[in-house]
């Protein structure tokens, strides 16, 4: 299913022990943890693109506390994937949503992210999915019509590539921060729903929408983890415990 990411190649990639290769001789290593790094030099805007190791670790601690479990449950109920689905999570981060859903439901899961620390963490924890380092803003390194479901959960959006890799009966889940997400830290947010729908209107039809919201009483350490995970500058004053809102707007599209 994978394609060679080298510019002007796009040949299928085949597994050969601890490497994968295309017919033109381009080859890529498979890490010990199992992920595949297809990121090309031209795909990097910085030396270490995407989530930092600190951000990945902070977000994982929040997941492990169970704080994001209601969001996961809301996504699962909203999308209702089946064991027959082939699912791509574009911008998968540390793999929490895809890996958890694949473990519960048993579908064939594939995650792509530009961050090596994030994909490394995903591959170590969720062995039931395939994890790839790549720049999905440029090219999703899978053949046409590979997936029945694509998810973009608070990640970047590449509508043409989402459409290319989805089957003609495929679905697309887009989750964006709702206006009240982290309102206690960010203040009032903007409603991004209409603008997001406009991003996909040419290739997709909106079929459902829902907001999933939860709140949690966090100690000072967990609040600091939230700040790390959303790249907010660390405050000079010590963190204080607070009740914090987590909220996502879920948009479900079908291929036109």
Fold blueprint:
Blueprint: E1 13-16, E2 19-22, E3 27-29, E4 36-37, H1 53-64, H2 69-79, E5 86-90, H3 96-105, E6 108-113, H4 116-125, E7 129-133, E8 147-153, H5 159-165, E9 166-177, H6 183-186, H7 193-200, E10 204-218, H8 220-229, E11 242-255
Parallel strand pairs: 4-7, 5-6, 5-8, 6-7, 8-9
Antiparallel strand pairs: 1-2, 2-3, 9-11, 10-11
Helix pairs in contact: 1-8
Explain how this protein is built:
Helices cover 28% and strands 30% of the residues. The protein is α/β, with parallel strands linked by helices and 256 residues long. It has two domains: 1-30, no CATH class; 33-255, Rossmann fold (3-Layer(aba) Sandwich), CATH 3.40.50. The longest helix has 12 residues, at 53-64. The mean pLDDT is 93.
Summarize the structure.
With 256 residues, the protein is α/β, with parallel strands linked by helices. It has helices at 53-64, 69-79, 96-105, 116-125, 159-165, 183-186, 193-200, 220-229; strands at residues 13-16, 19-22, 27-29, 36-37, 86-90, 108-113, 129-133, 147-153, 166-177, 204-218, 242-255.
List the main descriptive attributes of the protein structure presented here.
3-stranded antiparallel sheet; alpha/beta; 8 helices; single chain; 30% strand; 256 residues; 8-stranded mixed sheet; Rossmann fold; 28% helix
Number of strands: 11
Distance between the termini: 23 Å
Strand composition percent: 25-35%
Helix proportion range:
25-40%
Please identify, by name, the CATH architecture of the largest domain: 3-Layer(aba) Sandwich
**CATH H-level homologous superfamily name of the largest domain:** Vaccinia Virus protein VP39
What do we call the CATH topology of the largest domain?
A: Rossmann fold
> Which regions contain 5 or more consecutive residues with pLDDT less than 50?
none
